Amino acid sequence: MLAPVLDFLLSPLEPTQHLSQINGHFLILQGQDDTLVPEEARRRFYEATPEPKTSVTFAGNHMSVGKEKMALLKEIIETSKKWLIENGAINS
Q1: Which pLDDT score, from 0 to 100, does residue 10 have?
Q2: Quick check: helix, strand or coil at residue 49?
Q3: pTM > 0.85: yes or no
Q4: Among candidates 81, 36, 83, 33, which has minimal Cα distance to 55?
Q5: Residue 75 has pLDDT above 90, yes or no
Q6: Residue 76 burial (CB count, 10 A)
């Protein structure tokens, strides 16, 4: 019973409520087997993000901290940096 009330109260903070009002080029990063962000939520976020957008799906779960995640973190940083350079957002 509390969940619908919280959903209503927090709705203005939901990023998908504001994405259509933002202009730019967007990079969407996600984990293929993300157990933290449900697939339905990722799909809604993708669909709400205006074009132009690039989506990159990394193998594995949600990014977190720890020694076992350093390789994934490095891949995410390299992918993000490459995308930013290609889109003129940063200098190489």
Answers
A1: 75
A2: coil
A3: no
A4: 83
A5: yes
A6: 16
Sequence spans of domains, the chain: 19-86
Could you tell me the CA-to-CA distances from 82 to 62, 79, 87, 92 in Å, in that order? 21, 5, 9, 9
Render pLDDT for 45-66 as a digit per residue (tens, 0 to 9): 999 999 999 999 999 888 887 7
Please choose, from the candidates 24, 15, 79, the residue with its C-alpha nearest in 3D space to the C-alpha of residue 47.
15
Radius of gyration of the chain (CA): 16
Comparing 37 with 6, the larger pLDDT belongs to: 37
How far apart CA 69 and CA 59 sit, in angstroms, is: 12
The C-alpha atoms of residue 3 and residue 9 are separated, in whole angstroms, by 10
In degrees to the nearest 10, what's the CA dihedral of 58, 60, 61, 62? -30
Is the pLDDT at 8 greater than 90? The verdict is no
